[in-house]
Amino acid sequence: MALLLVAADWARRKRRSLIALTVDHALRPEAAAEARFVAATAAKLGVSHRTLRWHAPKPGQARARTAR
After folding, report:
1. Res. 68 pLDDT band, cuts 50 70 90
2. Within its chain, how far is the Cα of 30 from the centroid?
3. Secondary-structure percent of the chain, ordered helix, strand, coil, rounded to 5
């Protein structure tokens, strides 16, 4: 979210277009709602937004933590 805010400010000052991408890995029940929140925030900032949903098999939480 912080990157979205900074990038939107930069794009506005430089008169550039910007697109924000959110990846919903669907690892947590609230992930989809969080992606919608980011999309709504982007819209308020005038930033195009796309949510990409992870469709491949999901690793377990422990494996995801290790990957991060």
Report:
1. low
2. 13
3. 50, 20, 30
